[in-house]
UniProtKB/TrEMBL annotation:
Broad class of where this protein is predominantly found: plastid
Pfam families to which the protein is assigned, alphabetical: Glycos_transf_1 (PF00534)
Taxonomic source organism: Platanthera zijinensis
Phylogenetic lineage: Eukaryota, Viridiplantae, Streptophyta, Embryophyta, Tracheophyta
Name of the molecule in the record: Digalactosyldiacylglycerol synthase 2, chloroplastic
Catalytic activity: a 1,2-diacyl-3-O-(beta-D-galactosyl)-sn-glycerol + UDP-alpha-D-galactose = a 1,2-diacyl-3-O-[alpha-D-galactosyl-(1->6)-beta-D-galactosyl]-sn-glycerol + UDP + H(+)
Protein EC: 2.4.1.241
Subcellular location: Plastid, Chloroplast outer membrane
Length: 470
């Protein structure tokens, strides 16, 4: 009756790929398990060597899941003083070059035993369910919480026939999330409206960034120069991450920003094009390879510029605020959470961008108070998550018998559930047909893991494995 609540956190990426869906779910699992009241399992994709070589930076690869897990735990232990009490398991994944994403292979609900199938947290629920074929999430788990990280519609709009693709994707996202999630948390209003959703930023920052901010605060109190460098931006170097907008702003307002140097840090598919464009426009921009934002190199920068409007909530913006810097960003729903911070300044047009940038470079940021430092922490983010996901309420309901209903009771809720079940059957049928999967964009032959992935993960080979669909 008093067993611990079990939470399985499923995500679509893993370290050493430094993306938000690798880092933030890792911290979420850590802090959900911190007080020992819950049993937490983090479920992440395992990539075979050929995909690791494409996805992971600095030629980092792992020969087995055990080595990969050791790397992740070591990375996390270096960044927190929290005792790591969560479990970590892998599901088979494949990297899609077209989508620049890792997609699940097979029925990943099977990674959690029926005895522990209590609460599932789907980090990027649409991504995890587009091609899902197997046990229905709502049947496997008592409660399914989706956390929407990515504004896929905005990314798709920038591709060929983008608005048509976006229109179709909007309805697919609504469909799969309605089928598979009881509750959806949208990190900001930058995402599409979704069934049973609420807007709340449930992400925090690595505590090391808060420590840097404290040091800067003490330096400012002692009258020491806390920030000796100018402006910078760090992010994956692809056009859709704000680089196009930034170069356009710097080009259009070169006269107003005369003498202003901006340093860009990032790796990505568009790195060469970004560098070529900056040279052609003759901008006062230095471009460097990507680095961990915790690199001491960044500590002394005063101003963080982030023109991106494709993020849902930008992790690096939160990190920059935690370090005590001034942030210049677009007046966009993705930045609504940050507007409460005195050091965050938003612009509506290029003229305001230039004015705010010059002003920020000419004065020191405001010291970060304990109140605002707390709001950026993972402790506060976890409290917000527990509240909006209603986890404590669920724990209570789990031990209280449900109210009996009259025989043959029919309600509008029951009718809606019937329609939902029929919709789930349709999705499960379509997602089980190889030709249909390929037509919708799935990676070929990903209904089941191949022999190599089975060997690496210790799974039963496909030819001897029975898949049941519900």
């Amino acid at each position: 009756m008093s067993r611990k609540q079990h939470i399985a956190v499923f995500t679509t990426a893993s370290l050493p790929w430094m993306t938000g869906t690798a880092v933030n779910p890792l911290f979420r699992a850590t802090y959900l398990a911190k007080d020992g009241r819950r049993e937490v399992t983090l479920v992440i994709p395992w990539l075979s060597l050929k995909d690791q070589e494409v996805v992971f930076p600095n030629k980092i690869t792992f020969s087995c899941p055990t080595d990969h897990e050791a790397y992740i735990r070591h990375w996390l232990q270096e960044r927190t003083n929290v005792r790591l009490q969560f479990s970590l398991i892998f599901y088979p994944g494949r990297f899609s070059k077209e989508k620049r994403s890792i997609l699940p292979v097979g029925d990943i609900t099977e990674t959690i035993s029926d005895e522990k199938a209590d609460i599932a947290v789907l980090e990027e629920p649409e991504h995890l369910t587009w091609f899902h074929h197997g046990k229905r999430w709502k049947i496997k788990f008592r409660r399914v919480i989706g956390v929407v990280h990515t504004n896929y519609l905005e990314y798709v709009k920038r591709e060929k026939n983008g608005y048509i693709q976006s229109f179709i994707l909007r309805y697919i996202n609504n469909w799969v999330i309605d089928i598979y999630c009881h509750r959806v948390i949208r990190l900001s209003g930058a995402t599409q409206d979704l069934p049973r959703s609420i807007i709340c930023n449930v992400h925090g920052v690595n505590p090391k960034f808060l420590e840097i901010g404290m040091v800067k605060h003490w330096q400012q109190q002692r009258g020491e120069p806390a920030f000796t460098k100018g402006a910078y931006y760090i992010g994956k170097m692809i056009w859709s991450k704000g680089y196009k907008e930034l170069l356009q702003l710097l080009s259009k307002y070169q006269n107003e920003l005369s003498g202003t140097q901006v340093d860009l840090f990032g790796n990505g598919e568009d790195s060469e094009q970004v560098q070529e464009s900056a040279k052609k426009l003759k901008l006062a921009v230095n471009i460097y390879p990507g680095r961990d934002h915790l690199d001491p190199l960044f500590n002394d920068y005063k101003v963080f510029i982030n023109p991106s409007t494709t993020d849902v909530v930008c992790t690096t913006t939160a990190e920059a605020l935690a370090m005590g810097k001034t942030v210049i960003c677009a007046n966009h729903p993705s930045n609504d959470f940050f507007k409460q911070f005195p050091n965050c300044h938003t612009y509506d047009n290029g003229k305001e961008f230039a004015q705010l940038t010059l002003k920020a470079l000419g004065e020191d940021p405001s010291p970060v108070t304990d109140e605002f430092r707390r709001k950026l922490s993972w402790e506060a983010a976890t409290e917000r998550f527990v509240m909006v996901a209603e986890l404590n309420q669920d724990a209570h309901e789990a031990i209280v018998p449900s109210t009996s209903r009259p025989f043959m009771f029919i309600s509008s809720q029951g009718f809606t559930k019937t329609i939902e079940q029929a919709s789930a059957v349709l999705h499960n049928t379509v997602s089980g047909i190889e030709a249909a999967r390929r037509a919708l964009g799935a990676i070929p032959m990903t209904l089941q893991p191949d022999d190599q992935q089975c060997r690496e993960l210790g799974l039963t080979p496909p030819e001897r494995k029975q898949f049941w669909s519900s």
